[in-house]
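Hey forum,

I'm writing up a methods section and want to include a predicted complex as supplementary material. The small molecule is flavin-adenine dinucleotide. I've pasted the protein sequence and the SMILES. Can someone with a working setup run it? I'll credit the forum in the acknowledgements.
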Amino acid sequence: MNDNIKRIDPRRPFIITADGLKRITLGEVGNGVVLDFAHGGHKEATKPRRTTAPATRALLVAAHTDRGALDDHARQALAAAALLADDATEVVLIAFGEFKDDAAALGADRFIELPAFDRRNYAPDEEVRALTACVSAFTPAHVFMPDNATGDGDLGRRYAARADASIATQVVELDHAHVASYAHAGRAFASRALPDVVLLAANAVDAKLPFVGAGEALSADGIVPAAKVSAYVDLGIEEMDAAQVALEEADFIVSAGNGVSDIAAFETLAATLGAAIGASRVAVDDGKFTRDKQIGATGKTVEASVYIAFGISGAVQHLQGIKDCRHVIAVNLDASAPIAKRANLTIVADTQETIRALTDAAAAARASRANGASIVQSAPVAEGVAA
Ligand SMILES: Cc1cc2nc3c(=O)[nH]c(=O)nc-3n(C[C@H](O)[C@H](O)[C@H](O)COP(=O)(O)OP(=O)(O)OC[C@H]3O[C@@H](n4cnc5c(N)ncnc54)[C@H](O)[C@@H]3O)c2cc1C
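Reply by user p_vandermeer:
Happy to help. Structure tokens for the complex are below, copy them as they are.
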């Protein structure tokens, strides 16, 4: 077989990026996305405003936040609207939940924060009411939402049904004129004109934007009616042990490399923090962890919000597995290790000492929280922190 032949799957959708549409080519590493360290501690160059012209038209983006931030999927929905908007179109974000992100950097021109809503509380009737009010206020040409199972997919479908709006779900490809989704269990590729409500599948859009929005905060007063008590009875979310979650789905991962010698202490830390366990290939090859814990090019690709790398150098094959993690924290004796370029925070310290200090601090914080006292703010490990 000739390895030089690049196979293109004609049914693979286009990805919308700031440079236009891009077809994924099989054989390209990481969906063709070049690894960069934009998430690291480096300052990004100042980006221009997308448009400063007066807006005559709006695109609305609605998404739930998670602990004050939009997740990657929601950012992609926002980026989709910003990339499709012309100079006379403003992008308005409706954030269901507390919103502390940089709206301008994410592409929003105006945003409304609705802190009364929380993705962990199920109140679909009240959310539909709020979204309907926003659509009435801004009369957007289209509404973009991430099609996820954590609130937005449900809200988008409910809104479209209530408003009798046209809708496309699990959209994997879109441009100014059309959207496309897989149909018939993936055996067909269905395309249609851009509907009123676009529910985007994950990774249909490259969320990196070459511009910023105006990022103006709007008050919800006068636009969104005050939330009433939902008619739905919410039984709440059942918490589960992070160690039971598949690594690919874990939101918090602690990962051990060759620089970790006391595995028992490391596992105690993971249990204390409630984090899933990952490992570098060297740690797995040494027999310290089972192969299913390996993260990287020949292991698993993870998307945790927080990834703590203990004694991991940050070889390119390892970085490939953590490219979608939001916050990477490295603990390493060597401040110049490659992981430090990818990390948002590097702690230049010995792993064993840091693991002990963190375990003590986490246990103390848990205990004081259980006693109703305030959480311990500082751990001894903070002394060795380098930005
Ligand atoms: C085809 C191929 C595929 C691969 N796939 C993968 C993969 O999927 N996943 C993967 O991880 N690797 C993979 N590798 C291996 C990869 O190239 C690296 O060799 C590996 O990731 C290194 O693991 P490490 O960082 O744990 O170990 P090392 O490279 O030995 O680094 C250890 C780090 O720990 C630090 N350290 C040491 N002692 C301490 C201490 N006491 N306190 C604090 N820090 C300390 C050191 O400064 C160093 O930075 C692959 C390689 C190839 C060729």
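Some notes you might quote in the supplement: Confidence is low (pLDDT under 50) at residues 1-9, 24-44, 374-387. The chain has two domains: 14-218, 242-386.
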